[in-house]
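Lab notebook, bench 4. Still working through the backlog of constructs that have no structural model yet. Next entry is a single chain of 366 residues. Request: give me the structure tokens for it.
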Amino acid sequence: MTVGIVGAGQLGRMLALAGYPLGLDFLFLDPADDAPAGQVAPQLKGAFTEARLLDELSQRSEVLTFDWENISVDALRALKGDTRIAPPIPALATAQDRVSEKKLFERLSIPTTRWMAVSSRAQLTRALRDIGLPGVIKTRRLGYDGKGQAVVRTQDEAQRAWEQLGSAPLLYEELIPFDCEVSIIGARSPRGEVVVYPLNGNVHSEGILRLTRTPYGPPRWQRLASGYLQKVLKHFRYTGILTIEFFVTGGKLLANEMAPRVHNSGHGTIEGAATSQFENHLRAILNLPLGSTRPLGYSAMLNLIGTLPPREQLLAQGELHYHDYGKQPRPGRKLGHCTLVEATASARDRRARRLLAQLAPGVGIP
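Model written out:
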């Protein structure tokens, strides 16, 4: 049984590595010569929108999925009607447009920030007046890892951000003085079975995720986040893994964005949960029974960004799991991650602080 995956990045690579023990085969589509997943599975080399290759991928696969959300919805919709695609295209389309995301959250009574769509200077002026400063100006599409957005605290900064970003449709939202950021990950199968992972506590630096700790936060946060997630899963009659990121302020969870795919904050589930997010995504899209999300301890996952530290340096720290994605070094690029699992939250946090100080000096843990 072959799973076709559009995109052959590190997420696709980890999907394949999780699927081989299940007896699955994989075929990827990606334009890159050195795609991480292409090192572990066959790859069709070409553009994500190339109809001939997408059709071949579809014909050779039981189901199509994707390892990032900025692929062409139109290209997927053009495939033959008997092509099974999961997660569903409407969820993918919603996640590609921040305004559509915000409208979905509001429709499902999921709290979010105050926001306005902005496509002209006049609309920006109105948004600054009605929502106020400080705020964040974001492109509606193609933003990730802090790209395509600007924090503005004055009218002058807002006008400069407009000059930089205003060639594309934008969104303006209030800047939230949040206490922390969290994410919830869950899976749903076509038969309606749902599993939800423990809440993740995330630390970002320069818009890029640096550290995730799991489980995180009080039980009330878990209940709220899980309830919001299940609303979205039900709305789309979803299949696969879904992630929602939240700001936490004063004990209230405000939805920031969703990702219809396996997620960076879930990498720790490989060693930290009974069933990883990658395996559960595959189980879901193939309509297999979903695996337990029970945590195997208190885990911390740290991204390795820009350059990889010496492998020996990390492996010398007992009971630390090291993942190299096979990517060329580049500033700001996610090259790998490492995960530790401890018996208590305090032991995990102590080790995570020491490791973060070593790998990303200056990035603190709340």
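Notes after review: The two ends are 45 Å apart (CA to CA). The chain is about 30% helix and 30% strand. Flag for follow-up if needed.
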